[in-house]
C-alpha cells in the first residue's frame, strides 16, 4: 500500500484524495490520530473549514480560497470514509446522490421545464424541497432545519420556514418594536433569566436581518473585522510613543478609535 501509485499521482483527482483518506484510516500503518476520530470529533473541523472558505471569499484571497476549498472537500471525504467503514454509505453514493439531486432540482436546465427568473427558480426549488420532505414523512414545518448550523443562521432558517406558512411579522417596524421589547426585558431580568432573555434578543435580531435581506453571520463577521482593524489602529497610534493599550485609558483610546473611524471614512 505504501507504494500505491495513485497516492503519488498529482493528476489523481478525487480518487487520489479518497485513497489517501483510506490510508490514513487504515488499521495497520494508518495515522494514530485519524484512527481515533469519529463523526462527532470531526464535525467541528468541518464547520471551521466552511467558515475559513467564507473568510477567504470575504477577503478576496483567491489563492487562499483554493486551499480552503481543498480543506473543506477533504472534510467530506473524511466523513464518507468513516461512513463506509461503518457500513452506512460510500463516497460514490455521496457523489451520485448530490448529482442526482442537482439534476432533479433543475429541470429547467436538464429537462423541459421553463423557468425565466431567479425568483421563479427559488419558488420552484422550495416547492420541490417541500415534496421531498413530504416523501421522507417529515410532517412538521421545522422538521429538517439542521441543528448544526451556526446560531444566527439557524434562526433565520427557522424563521423563513415559519414565514412560509404565515407565521411572520408583515412589517419591519413590528420587528424593531419587538427588539426594543426584548432589550427592555433583558435589562430588567433577574440574573438567572438573562441567558434566556439574551437568546430571545438575538433571535429577534436575526429576524430583523431576514426582513432586511441581510446575512446576519456575514454582517457580524464584517463588524468583527471592523473592530479588529480599528483596535489595531489604536495600538499602532500608541506604539508611536512606545506605549501599549494598558498604558492608556478609555478616554484616550476612544479618541483614537474615533480618529481611526474618521480616517476610514476619508478613505
What are the key terms here?
267 residues; Helix Hairpins; mainly alpha
Question: Can you give a write-up of this model?
Answer:
The protein has 267 residues and is mostly helical. The chain contains twelve helices and no strands. The chain has helices at residues 13-24, 32-36, 39-58, 62-86, 91-105, 107-110, 118-135, 151-164, 172-188, 194-211, 216-239, 250-266. The model has no long low-confidence stretch (mean pLDDT 91).
Write the CATH fold name of the domain at 5-96: Helix Hairpins
Number of strands: 0
Beta-strand portion reads: under 5%
Total of helices: 12
Average residue-wise pLDDT: 91
Please identify the structural class as seen in this structure: mainly alpha
CATH class of the domain at 5-96: Mainly Alpha
Rounded to the nearest angstrom, the radius of gyration is 25 Å
Give the overall shape, derived from the CA principal axes. Answer: globular
Low-pLDDT stretches: none
Task: Return the string of H and E elements.
Answer: HHHHHHHHHHHH
Our measurement of the CA-to-CA distance between the termini, rounded to an integer number of angstroms, reads 58 Å
Percent range of helical residues: over 70%
CATH architecture call of the domain at 5-96: Orthogonal Bundle
Task: Summarize the main sheet.
Answer: none
What's the CATH superfamily of the domain at 5-96, by name? MazG-like
GO molecular function: nucleoside triphosphate diphosphatase activity
Protein name: Nucleoside triphosphate pyrophosphohydrolase
Pfam families: MazG, PRA-PH
Domain NTP pyrophosphohydrolase MazG-like: 37-110
